[in-house]
Amino acid sequence: MMQETVHLTQEELDSLIALLTQRTGIIPRSSHLEGIKNYIEKKLTEKGLSVPEYKTKLFVDGGLFSELINESTVNETYFFREEKQFILLRDRILPMWKATAGSMPVKIWSAACSYGEEAYSLALLAKSCGVNAMITASDINSQVLEHCRAGVFKDSSIRSVDGSSFKNLLMPYQKEGKIQFGSEIRNCITTREINLSKIDEMQTEALLPKNQNIVFLRNVFIYFSQNLRLKILNSIAEKCLADGGVLFVSMNETAQINFNEISPLLEKVMDGSIFYFKKKSPEVKANG
Ligand SMILES: C[S@@+](CC[C@H](N)C(=O)[O-])C[C@H]1O[C@@H](n2cnc3c(N)ncnc32)[C@H](O)[C@@H]1O
Question: pTM value?
Answer without folding.
Answer: 0.95
